[in-house]
Amino acid sequence: MKRNPVLLVHGIFRKKTVFNRMSVYLSALGWEVHSFDLKPSNARLGLDKLAEQISAYVTHHFAPNQPIDLVGLSMGGLVSRYYVQRLGGSERVKRFVTIASPHYGTWLAYTLPFIGCVQMRPGSAFLQDLNRDIEILSKVNFTSIWTAYDFVIVPAQNSRLGVGQEIKLRVFAHAMMVRDKKTLQALAQALSLPISN
Predict the structure, then answer these.
(1) What's 155's domain CATH number?
(2) Which one of 36, 106, 149, 181 is most buried, by most CB atoms within 10 A?
(3) Omega of the bond prior to 67 within 30 degrees of 0, cis?
(4) Domain carrying residue 91
(5) Phi/psi at 193 (nearest 5 deg)?
(6) How many structural domains does the chain have?
(7) What is the predicted pLDDT for the residue at 195?
(8) What pLDDT band is residue 2 in, cutting at 50, 70 and 90?
């Protein structure tokens, strides 16, 4: 199977180093892995604006005709969704995986007043708009990986989107979802799915 380059997008308060173990794992299996730091990652910038950084990275690091696979962790899943659904990413992305992402928001987003957190609150205008046309994700092979034991995405089932493939894991705590072997195996499985389009 020919593997597309994979771009990993991190979540709130993180840097690309959060993907160190995942990058090593995927590289050992033959993937070319990319990641970069969203700036800032503290939710003081809107998720829609952060998505423009994905667009810029893709434009500058991949040939125009190079298909890619995209993985978004936590907040990075929503940032990646905006890129796919609003910034033309669906034309480049063949497989799209979110890991523990608040597709329907998280109550923890009420702890900070920053615009990115406001956008991640359940029922926010941002999420309502993004979820209004989730059928765009049918253009890519979409997978949502989540755990019922999240404690950051509250309630945990808000990581479910209802489209594409869903993988529910028995992983304890949000932070482990980027490092647990079960997540890494599930991700490799999702990135190996045949392309339907």
Answers:
(1) 3.40.50.1820
(2) 106
(3) no
(4) 6-190
(5) -65, 140
(6) 1
(7) 85
(8) confident
